[in-house]
Amino acid sequence: MKGLLKNLGILIILIGVGILVGSAITHNLDNNTILGSSISLIIIGFIAYIIINKKIVD
């Protein structure tokens, strides 16, 4: 369980990157909702990764 929790931030980042790659492949880069949600997921995943790993180590 700790392993999954430790990698939760990375999984969220990968979901955001997957959305960006999917929108680039389909040439749907004009949709600000998709771009905004994917960058939000990347930022939230980065923050979650830092916070969760700091809590697990301590």
Summarize the structure.
By secondary structure, the chain is mainly α.
Q: Which parts are unreliable, with pLDDT below 50 for 5 consecutive residues or more?
A: none
- Rough outline: elongated
Helical segment tally? 3
| Secondary structure category | mainly alpha
What's the pLDDT, averaged over the residues?
89
Topology:
Blueprint: H1 2-6, H2 8-25, H3 32-57
Question: How would you portray this structure in words?
Answer:
The chain crosses the membrane at residues 7-27, 33-52. Keywords: Membrane, Transmembrane, Transmembrane helix. This protein is an all-alpha fold and 58 residues long. It has one domain (2-57). The protein is built from 3 helices and no strands. It has helices at 2-6, 8-25, 32-57. α2 (8-25) runs antiparallel to α3. The model has no long low-confidence stretch (mean pLDDT 89).
